[in-house]
Amino acid sequence: MSKTIKKICCIGAGYVGGPTMSVVAKQCPHIEITIVDVNAARIAAWNDENLDNLPVYEPGLQEIVAEARNRNLFFSTDIEKAIDEADMIFISVNTPTKNYGKGKGMAADLKYIELCARQIAAVAKNDKIVVEKSTLPVRTAAALKSILDNTGNGVNFHILSNPEFLAEGTAIQDLINPDRVLIGGENDEAIAALVDIYAHWVSRDKILTTNLWSSELSKLTANAFLAQRVSSINSISALCEKTGANVDEVSKAIGMDSRIGSKFLKASVGFGGSCFQKDILNLVYIARSYGLTEVAEYWDQVILMNDYQKQRFADNIIQTLYNTVSGKKIAFLGWAFKKDTNDTRESAAIYVADYLLSEQAEITVYDPKVSAERIYADLDYLNTRSSEENRALVKVVNTAYEACNDAHAIAVLTEWDEFKRYDWAKIKEHMKKPAFVFDGRKLLNRKELEDLDFKYYAIGE
Ligand SMILES: NC(=O)c1ccc[n+]([C@@H]2O[C@H](COP(=O)([O-])OP(=O)(O)OC[C@H]3O[C@@H](n4cnc5c(N)ncnc54)[C@H](O)[C@@H]3O)[C@@H](O)[C@H]2O)c1
After folding, report:
1. Distance (Å, rounded) from C-alpha 44 to C-alpha 305?
2. Which CATH number goes with the domain that contains 344?
């Protein structure tokens, strides 16, 4: 018999902690869950009466929060109380790429994880199961265990690795119906306690249990393989543009081979999101630190290809617009790294914009879910130019029609469905001629646009 978990604390109320724990709360009304965060504004937004103000946008999330919040799902800044009362603690804090010191630009920054471990150790007065939900370098559990055991109050800690495989934009669906749940650990009772929670809605044959290190490494590996497929097809998209092949036709032809499969073979301006790049960099760093140079270089190429694709997309815009975009207005449709999320971390749009701004373009952005504040913060973070210059060169507007008004060209950076439904004749009417569209997501209908006399360019065609 495993220990029955009555109270859970989740540290980190971000894109993973928020949706993941909301779904656990929905599926397990008998468990009381408190999600805590040091960011008081974020917690306040999770507690906002108006569900449109939740800090994370995901289809289906609002309904679940409405159902479970203040029933068995709570959002709080009182971290110590939540740790003290919980039987099981999920650590779901950010693990960004280090931007200082040893491993700068490559290794995962584990300072937030370590802070959590120290706080858990200081507060815990009874035995706890500590679950790594954040994506961590392989063997982090050993460091966690050492901190917990050496700084704690003599209570027992069992560490589990339970990486999250949700994709933003489909997080709720992925959480309710996961391909698999992975739990790594050493203590059978602790593993069983977590398996029992998931078993409330996931069939047991989809719940895999492994040793800690396989679980930690599987998460990095899964992201590396997914990103590799995008970079592989993107590399072929460049070749398609030179040879007259069409990358969609190539994707379809190879994807029907059951050994390859059809998913994740869509060419685009490049992958973004908070995870792929950071997790591959981390994998590369780990491989290098074990002296596995060839392994490190192999995976590094996935990132180099992604950078190349973003650069190529921007270069094509400049070249096509008669080799200069200086003083020209480019409308950006989309800023989020993919549709159905308000997350912009590592979005291709940021890098394409930065490159075009360095060529003195003027950019007007419309994204249905991303705020102006976020867009300016993303550009300021790059430090390429002053924040005043970013604000002078980039305008953020509330409709796509406004964005495209008087534009020399449109660049589609996110595959939001609504872009397909626009009145493209009306958009063209108000643009400079010839009216160019650069479709970084292969979203729009070439025939429709060409019939309207747009000059239409899509990746890999
Ligand atoms: N975003 C994804 O799609 C995704 C998918 C799978 C796994 N992951 C992994 O999950 C982890 C979290 O990612 P995310 O996207 O939710 O990050 P996020 O930045 O959205 O959220 C992390 C939250 O943790 C909080 N936090 C940091 N240190 C804290 C501390 N000491 N105490 C309390 N709160 C603290 C931050 O304030 C922030 O709100 C990362 O390791 C990431 O790699 C992310």
Report:
1. 40
2. 3.40.50.720
